[in-house]
Amino acid sequence: MSKLFSPIKLGPLDLPNRIVIAPMCQYSAQDGFPTDWHMIHLGHLALSGAALLIIEATAVEPEGRITADDLGIWSDEHVAALEPVVAAMRRYAPVKIAMQLGHAGRKASSEVPWEGGANVPVGHARGWQTVAPSSLPHAEGETVPVALDRAGLQRVKDNFVAAARRADALGLDAIEIHGAHGYLLHQFLSPLANQRDDEYGGSLENRMRFPLEVFQAIRAAVSGEMVVGMRISASDWVEGGWDVEQSAVLAKELDKLGCQFIHVSSGGVSPRQQIPLSPGYQIDFAARIKREVAMPVIGVGLITEPKHAEAIVQDGQADMVALARAMLYDPRWPWHAAAELGATVTAPPQYWRSQPREHKNLFGDTRLGQR
Fold it and tell me: What does the angle CA 19 – CA 294 – CA 156 come to, to the nearest 5 degrees?
């Protein structure tokens, strides 16, 4: 029996397998609103057979977008625009749907990756003033962010809560709070980005305070059926930065507060990072955190081979495996993994005829007839 294709629960949410489609920014929205691209892209991935699809980082306020083309959920109009996309996925696929709620902080006001991804200065048509824990730019020569004062902190927290309520009203199954990849909540955690001298800076307890406050506020604001988890960067990959031992402390605090999953990534807060890329290069971080918490741990990072994903969950390094680029390259990755591992995966009946002869039970109990 394949453990990768065995069921698991995230809080009250039942999942038929342990494959997650990680959130991947598409930089294809208009004023935060989804476009036809989102209908095609998300609908495509919804048919993959993965258990959980996490919609890309979705900004909780306009200033929190990574680029001017990011998806947003800062108004009820954005919810209305997303409703047909979610309804289409629900109509044709049993996949559970989450949304990653994010704020880019000092890494906001960027150009899209295929235009170089550079910082867009204030005053440019596609740029704006950024905010952060401290007035420290991400890299030399980039926009200096405004340090959030008490009113700014409250505004950001309120906007996270309002966005979470909208995600709940949209009928999604889960929320992933973005605390990774050098964006705002990660900036609070990392001493490389956070040099405040108030209760939100300095000690580990203080640097964790705002991310934990945001989690608590969201958890209290949404329904009990809504699963709430967090994505973190377990290491800055920079000497003196955020590291896996601090991440373990954060994970334990989240566990105490009722966090229902933690998605373990790394990096993003500093251009000085030195990341030794290799298949599964972040899985040791997931395994370290898994030893500290009761909630399910999602591992991610250059996982492309089914047997590798199977070994990760079989060995107890992570409870679930997330794929991003590999899923873009092969949107039927879960089908191919199930075939290789001798498992069964859900496919829409319109595609049953594609089941290979040598894998007669790949799609389960299928019946086809034609005159």
Answer: 80
Per-residue pLDDT tens digits for 108-147 = 999 999 999 999 999 999 999 999 999 999 999 999 999 9
Nearest to 176 by CA among 254, 291, 248: 254
Q: How far apart are alpha carbons 42 and 55 in whole angstroms?
A: 8
DSSP string covering 262-298, please? Answer: EEEE---S-TT------TTTTHHHHHHHHTT-SS-EE
What is the model's pLDDT at position 367?
Answer: 86
Beta carbons of 310 and 3 less than 8 angstroms apart = yes
Has residue 32 got a pLDDT over 90? yes
> Residue 320: pLDDT band by 50, 70, 90 thresholds?
very high
Q: Which of 27, 183, 329, 351 is catalytic?
A: 183
pTM, to two decimals? 0.97
Radius of gyration of the chain (CA): 20
Q: Alpha-carbon torsion 144, 157, 103, 258, what sign?
A: positive
What are residue 9's phi and psi, to 5 degrees?
-115, 135
**Contact at 8 Å (CB) between 241 and 195?**
no
Q: Is 200 a catalytic residue?
A: no
Give the bridge partners for 33, in sequence order. 30
Annotate 203-217 with DSSP letters as a single string: SHHHHHHHHHHHHHH
Best CA proximity match to 251, nearest among 291, 216, 220: 291
* pLDDT band per the 50, 70, 90 thresholds, residue 186: very high
Mean pLDDT across the stretch 232-258? 98
